[in-house]
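Attaching the record inline, Q. Sequence:
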Amino acid sequence: MQRPPRQPRRPPRPLDAARLEELALAYVARFATSAARLAAYCGRKLRERGHVGQDQGAPPPDVAALVARFVASGFVDDEGYARARAGGLLRRGYGARRVSDALRADGIAEPLREEIAPGEAGRREAAAAYARRRRLGPFARAPLGATDRGGYQKQLAALLRAGHDSAHARHVLAAASPGELEDWIAEAREEEDRTA
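Structure, as predicted:
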């Protein structure tokens, strides 16, 4: 039995301001986002589909004004988004540098990135979480031998790629047990409590 030929797809209709706003509203309802990511999404949709009156030289819908309205109405909150994104990355074990890079890519401004950057205890917790998740250092199935330089370098490189600084990465790999890492984290927490 032969299949009937497929109908060719119609090109999508060009966007007007109302339809672009509907798409933007559906996007923020489905995804947590920053103002810069929403603007990029709207810009991409306009490039893909065009806009009404484009062939007559009409200007496209004002994406900046749309994003500003969404920010003013509370649909988009860069601070809330940045805190949630940073918290998720830190819990997964990514370091401060990797978190900052992800937030920069999401269009979060430098002052806000600095404000939500983790403290020393948060950085240590993230390094330990990454080591636990990837089974590095004291969490490894088989401990590294004193002569296993290649294995040590691989584990160190993994921690550095995850955004941890070299001092934290080396401390995690030098820990004899998970309990030693917990003590290291508790020490930083106590220091932060004293200075707060």
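The first helix runs from residue 17 to 30. The chain is about 65% helix and 0% strand.

More tomorrow.
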